[in-house]
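FAQ: What does the model actually see?

It sees only this:
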Amino acid sequence: MPERYDLVLRGGTVIDGSGGPGARADVAVRGDRVARVGAVDADAAAAEVIDVSGHVVCPGFIDVHAHDDTLVLIEPDNEGKVMQGVTTVINGNCGAGVVPQSASRRVLESEAPLPEWDSYGGYLDAIARQPPSLNVATLVGFGTMRAGALSGAQVTRPATAEEIERMRAWLREALTAGALGMSTGLIYEPDRYATTDEIVAVAQPLAAGGGLYASHVRGEGETLLAAHAEAMEIGRRGGVPVQISHHKASGRAYWGYVRRSLAQIEEARVRGEDVTADQYPYTAGSTRLAAMIQNGWFGDGADGAREMEVLLASVPSRPAWEGRSVASLASELDLPIEQAAQRIVDEGGASTIAIMFSMDEADVRTVMRHESTMIGTDGIGWGSRPHPRHFGTYPRILGRYVREHGVIALEEAVHRMTAMPAQKFDLRGRGELREGSIADLVVFDPRTVIDVATYEDPRRPPAGMPYVFVNGSAVVRDGVHTHARAGRAVRRGVDR
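And it is asked to produce this:
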């Protein structure tokens, strides 16, 4: 009897995620699993056969630095991520988690109704009941826990032993439910008031629970090296792996510092410490405008960033300001730039998101070449002018940095997007294209794949990426989103 499959991708070049060379092979899928990698008999029965000659077939991309915690429920198509080949997002970064829900620091408040949850297990159950088009895994946000354990204006003080134990209890529950670890955002409220000792104390359950520590470190300019050292100290004292979020040097005065911060990572790895980082391939970042004000971006000392251009991506109460620069509004309002920025937050809302051009292209390439670096979008998909990284990160790597500039080899780039993050975050069954693996797959044309999203027009899907499959189901077919809700709640260490 001939073999029977649900899907056969014929004639493509398989890059399996391991970092090894690609090879021409067919890929057959049965249900949600890869059933065969190799020659598939011509007489094999299949519900669908697609000729992918001239294309690469690889594992689905894992966005290790996502901020889609509520977006996956409000906008379940997740077009920005799915269309660029992301099949799994890791939420809960930069200390912004979903428990307790009352303290959840959503990137943007939305009037759209959300299900209620009182635990990380409850959040993952909500994802399972209302599946989006991609898979969702999560970190535990330290800042959200701290806001819940300490009340209101008291967040500026150290946490008490009782409050630390309350945070530990939330963390233990999350790890039991399948969370991947804990994150901090140490430039943000209320994380920024926590000492190293407090973070270490709260993180105590991570080692026994198998989780890692991910950090938006305490500074990315003058204090970059000290901030990296603190992250590594927390991992070392806790006995857990460390993930440095969006590795960069911010501010012209500190361009080139990444060579020293990469040396720090190398030294830690020589000592046997599991330290890695992630990166988005752009010279502009994006965050809440209020946080930029708090961290002195527009003041006289400001990490060397005051001269950088700042654009408004999302201004909830003043959408007409989206796409404008802070400097142009300061001129229009006849205010000094720092006062204008505060006026924008006061009138536009605390969730106003800005884009700031603060990095050096040479630094981006230096970090990208390093073996410790994997890829994440850090995308914030709200507003009319979000950062284009939410829509173009992965095709930008493949088109601009692999094909056009040769910064990194194709097989290595795919490895950094797939198997490397799957291993680091313990996402079993994902990240490699092999027989028996979960059928999260991307098909792209290595000759034409490229990001199309720009700062002026960010909500544009990439070119050269015609097919994306999540758990064996097509979510992108012929470059068009199918609206399939094929995603799952992904739990650490569970092959499903």
